[in-house]
Amino acid sequence: MSTSGTPQFRYTQTPSKVLHLRNLPWECTEEELIELCKPFGKIVNTKCNVGANRNQAFVEFSDLNQAISMVSYYASSSEPAQVRGKTVYIQYSNRHEIVNNKSPGDVPGNVLLVTIEGVEAGDVSIDVIHLVFSAFGFVHKIATFEKAAGFQALIQFSDAETASSARNALDGRSIPRYLLPEHVGSCHLRISYSAHTDLNIKFQSHRSRDYTNPYLPVNPTAIEGISQPAVGPDGKKKEPESNVLLASIENMQYAVTVDVINTVFSAFGTVQKIAIFEKNGQTQALVQYPDISTAAVAREALEGHCIYDGGYCKLHLSYSRHTDLNVKAYSDKSRDYTIPEASLLAAQQAPGAPAAPPQWQNPQYPGNEYGSAVQGHMPPGQGPWDPSMQAGRSTYVSAPGTFPGQNFATSSVPSYAAAGVPSGSSPHASTRPSMPGAPPNMRHDGASPPGVRPGGVSPSGQPTYYGQ
DNA sequence: AGCACA
Fold first, then answer.
1. What is the pTM of this model?
2. Nearest alpha carbon to residue A117 among A141, A153, A142, A143
3. N or C: which end of chain A has fewer CB within 10 A?
4. Residue A272 · residue A284 · CB < 8 Å
5. Is the CB of A207 under 7 A from strand B?
6. CB atoms < 10 A from the CB of A130, how many?
7. Looking at the predicted structure, is the pLDDT value of residue A194 above 80?
8. Mean pLDDT, to the nearest integer, of A16-22?
9. A100 CB less than 7 Å from any atom of strand B
């Protein structure tokens, strides 16, 4: 007794408080669905954009009679149910409740999380993404990144309505072939809502854009900038000079803390910012000076030399493509000495007493980028588009003040109380700040070990004022 | 224009 061939009539179906609606316009939002149905009763649940064409929906009333009233109303009405001028067909669903309606990514917002399946990051440019999504409204910002799920993008629209129209139109569809490289097969878009409301874009780059802020610094290689620039011994890289140095630390037998880096590099001038991170299992540090010439001097003096005797912590220096680091003011992996509070904090952080830094200092974004945002762990608006985030691993608490700064010298006047410029040393930059037998991560509460000069932070916790 | 686990 099949119903094939003969249309089923609505009144032959078993009533349910769940109604099945079809022939909806694909842009149909949950709001429109509710508008249509709520005159008949209380809606307790909905499910929109169902089916291959995303033009079906379910609505669950709190009471069976309400569903019946809606069905019978439109069964006898001369005016069909409509959404955006399209006739909507309404029947009882063959289920009696809507299950599993909302996953976290279904909560509408103005930011979309787009997963582009089957492609690598290089295959789809940010401009292509922008082009595709701009069809639905002004795209404020885009951030792209790679996570386990694949190549993903966060796309910020003005409002949730625009975002949902883009989602409804594009979810499950593919980017047109002509916008993609030849070798790319299929690339379906999986789109959900992000918990973000405002992305924090720091650079215009091949990975991130802020279309609302034309004055944002352009960093064509915002991420690659700190990737390994292949600094081989013979590597004669024609890299442009920069006020920011990238230090790769080889043979790192001892922990190299922010303070150690600060001490070493302060010998040549004011260190403004430091970011330490891991890249391919190697520790690297970005060190920012106020100007290129200072960086150049430091680079010349330090290249190939070891922080410690015995070939430990050998430095390889190159120019970063960064010009201004965006780092947490004070964490165990970064420092911004241009912020007074950070210097103060650094100064007051007694060695060996790892007073837990406030939450904001240390990112909870293991890995990088927005991965945790996807899981909703990141507060909205805190997208860390931040090079220093590259290495989220905090391995040890920094033990400042143990570096033998006396071997470094500077001719410049220290600008920061806690900057740790070992003045009073020889005016020539020794390149052997060795400290035999006393690794810098050695804990020693209180006084410095013999022969060790407080390198930046006095162990007693007092800011050390070097002056002249 | 015809029923949802992702």
1. 0.38
2. A153
3. N
4. no
5. no
6. 15
7. yes
8. 96
9. yes
Lowest mean pLDDT among A65-79, A101-115, A120-134, A269-283: A101-115
- Token digits for A45? 């649940």
Cβ within 8 Å of residue A243, ≥6 positions away: A288, A289, A290, A291, A292, A294, A295, A323
In chain B, which nucleotides are within 7 Å of a protein Cβ?
1-6
A289 vs A300: CA distance, rounded Å: 14
Hey, what are A73's tokens? 């109303």
- What's the fold here for domain A111-218? Alpha-Beta Plaits (3.30.70)
Residue A288 β-bridge partners: A244, A273
Q: How confident is the model at residue A58 (pLDDT cuts 50, 70, 90)?
A: very high
User: What's the average model confidence in pLDDT over A225-245?
Assistant: 59
- List the single protein residue with the shortest CA to C1' distance from B6: A103
Which residue has tokens 């762990």?
A: A377
Cβ atoms of residues A33 and A73 within 8 Å: no
- CA atoms of A407 and A355, how far apart (whole Å): 29
Residue A59 has pLDDT above 60, yes or no: yes
A17 touches strand B (CB under 7 A): no
Per-domain residue ranges of chain A: 18-92, 111-218, 244-340
Q: Which 253-312 residues of chain A approach strand B with CB closer than 7 Å?
A: none
* Predicted local distance difference test score (pLDDT) of residue A98: 92
Angstrom distance (rounded) from CA A209 to CA A331: 27
| The token pair that represents A413 in the structure block | 């006047």
A366 band by pLDDT with thresholds 50, 70 and 90: very low
Which CATH number is associated with domain A244-340? 3.30.70.330
In chain A, the N- to C-terminal Cα span, in Å, equals 101
Can you state the angle between helices A292-302 and A258-266, rounded to 10 degrees? 100
Q: Are A465 and A418 in contact (CB under 8 A)?
A: no
CATH topology of A18-92 equal to that of A244-340?
yes
- The reply to whether A23 has its C-beta less than 7 Å from any atom of strand B is yes
CB proximity list for A418: less than 8 A, separation 6 or greater? A337, A343, A344, A346, A347, A456, A457, A463, A464
Chain A 37-66 residues whose Cβ is under 7 Å from strand B: 47, 50-51, 53, 56, 58
pLDDT > 90? residue A38: yes
Q: How confident is the model at residue A403 (pLDDT cuts 50, 70, 90)?
A: very low
Please answer whether residues A229 and A383 qualify as being in contact, where contact means their C-beta atoms are separated by less than 8 angstroms: no
